[in-house]
TrEMBL record, chain A:
UniProt key word Protein transport: no
Keywords for this protein: ATP-binding, Nucleotide-binding
Database matches in SUPFAM superfamilies: P-loop containing nucleoside triphosphate hydrolases
Protein name: Sugar ABC transporter, ATP-binding protein
Database matches in InterPro entries: AAA+_ATPase, ABC_carbohydrate_import_ATPase, ABC_transporter-like_ATP-bd, P-loop_NTPase
PANTHER family: CARBOHYDRATE TRANSPORT ATP-BINDING PROTEIN MG119-RELATED (PTHR43790), SUGAR ABC TRANSPORTER ATP-BINDING PROTEIN (PTHR43790:SF8)
GO molecular function: ATP binding; ATP hydrolysis activity
PROSITE patterns xrefs: ABC_TRANSPORTER_2
From TrEMBL, chain B:
Protein name: Xylose transport system permease protein XylH
Transmembrane domains' residue ranges: 42-62, 74-94, 124-141, 153-172, 192-212, 224-252, 258-276, 305-328, 340-358, 365-384, 390-407
One of the record's GO molecular function terms: transmembrane transporter activity
Any Gene Ontology CC annotation: plasma membrane
Keyword Membrane: yes
Keyword Iron-sulfur: no
Function: Part of the binding-protein-dependent transport system for D-xylose. Probably responsible for the translocation of the substrate across the membrane.
Amino acid sequence: MSDAAPIQSQPRSARGEPVISLRNVSKNFGAVSALTDIDLDVHAGEVVALVGDNGAGKSTLVKVLAGVFQPSAGTISFMGREVALSSPSVALDMGIATVFQDLALCENLDVVANIYLGREKDPWHLDEVAMEVRAWTLLNELAARIPSVREPVASLSGGQRQTVAIARSLLLEPKLIMLDEPTAALGVAQTAEVLNLIERVRDKGLGVIVISHNMDDVRAVADRIVVLRLGRNNGVFTPADSHHDLIAAITGASENSVSRRAGRLAAQEEGLA
Amino acid sequence: MTHNPNSVAGQALDRADTRVRQDEGLGGALRAFIDRVRSGDLGMIPVAVGLVVISVIFTSLNPVFIRPGNVSNLLYDCATTGIISLGVVCVLLLGEIDLSVGSMSGLASAILGVLWINNGWHPAGAILVALGMGAAVGALYAKLFNRVGMPTFVATLAGLLALLGLQLYLLGSTGSINLPFAQPLVRFGQNLYMPNWLSFILALIPGAAVLWTGFRARARRQAAGLTGVAMSVILVKAVALTVVLLVVVLYLAQGRGVPWMFGLFVLLVVVMDYAFTRTKWGRSLMAVGGNREAARRAGINVRRIYLSAFVLCSTFAALGGVLAAARLGSSSQQAGSGDVNLNAIAAAVIGGTSLFGGRGSAYSALLGIIVIQAISNGLTLLNLSSSLRYMILGGVLALAVIVDSLARRSRASHGRA
Ligand SMILES: Nc1ncnc2c1ncn2[C@@H]1O[C@H](COP(=O)(O)OP(=O)(O)O)[C@@H](O)[C@H]1O
Ligand SMILES: [Mg+2]
């Protein structure tokens, strides 16, 4: 099913040059093929949502682009040039910032140290004042509710940690931002704030990849919705496409538990009526 | 301050959240400190308390313990193992261990004796070779860890044996080499004390530094729209530090004064403290010790951090070995054996550097080694056999690790890593 001509929509409009292009990217973990022949383009000023069931390979794809994992095969071009993302620092230096699903924060360090980790000002005499001011500025932009930036990250709630991780990704003025389930632990107001932020960075001309299981959020911000299923491309949608088609691509069948449940509810309502 | 562009609605940036208690002035600083301690962030407290208890007990058992002459002597003994312990702190902060520091110090003392006395080298050259050997051994451990993934526990255990073998091999034909008494290096190791006027001046410097950096940081923070530390807090800190140091120095001046070698040790501690807390390298070290994968994803070159920490550790061990040889006036097969290894590691842990990585301080080597040497010294004064000394030191180390583990659990339940 997954290979049977997926529902293909034209992108709404390619907003700019491709920031990143993947061709036939595969990633194996021993016998497990987490990713197989993935193609993906993200243009400047475009938000691409990456959706798929648990284990579809979304986080693996993000980690390949962040330089955490090396692809087993395929080519990656960044700003039109073929590149090897051989380590996280290479990706960061190119301008690829990532909010990882597990956040990757150092719990023993405070918020300022985490935001600036690896990018400290004045390596031989850390400029704590400048770093703290910039940290507050970034956090205030995200309407963060963090009482003190001098507490170790271990003392923060899940949502606060997520905000710290997002603030960190904005520090370097990147060209591509990847957010792996950035709103999973956030409250209502903060989720809206993050969606606003995604639109703001898109309008600044950055490329954005966002992973979310919340289809309403995805439709609200995405220009294109790329579906992964079992580690393969399974169609590209726009927010205008029907919910039914999108779910069918994610689950791999038009007849699936989601549609069955919807059908059952509809039947019940008819029965009541 | 209310007109600062960075401030939020007339509030300093870091006080804008209404949930933050507005800890101001001395009382506020004290309250914040008590909160930290109660949540399990004990820092230097256990070791400071321990030191007072130990001094009181041993002084009551034998008043010689607290005499200036004995204290000077004690500080001399602290310097050699303390410098080794300072290196151990580097690897403990990564959550790793180096079990071979004792053997490394013994090998360094053997290299010194063989090159200097047997081969007629200039002592400076012999010291450089010894330190270079330390750096090479540390680099080898780091390579084994980075490339092969060999646990440092095992690599350094192998190193403990191999380095000891090399030490015995080098000394083989002679067994023990006496170092000439009149040489500056040996005098440095045995009876070179600071003139009293100099030690008074040096005792004033830390307080002055606290004042200067404190006021500067305060002014900069306020200019940037952040709250600064209260004047009173800075003043009290500076005065307290100066008083304590002056009392110690005045007291030691009644005897022979402050040993230069102890001065060197303290200087190295201060330098390493700066490196741990004020440089990018130190921040990276703490990050790798706290969460290695997170540090890697932040773009930190994790391998280089391991390399630097292990090279520093073994080099400090070699330096400690050179100074120990100067202290003993000989390079012998016994150098670095016995309790040197365990004392150096125990000192770091007793001083409050966690075995679990990511937290600790250079000062833990200083305070920890003073505790250990005070116990050794006190028990020796009581003419107790070394059997009892080992048992008591073992108990103290176990106690320190228990405190570390309990504090860690308490921090976890209070959400402080
Ligand atoms: N480090 C790893 N080693 C082995 N298998 C992995 C590893 N990381 C991910 N996988 C596998 O790759 C597949 C995709 O995982 P992931 O990318 O995390 O999915 P998701 O789309 O839920 O983020 C899963 O089957 C997972 O078990
Ligand atoms: Mg995932």
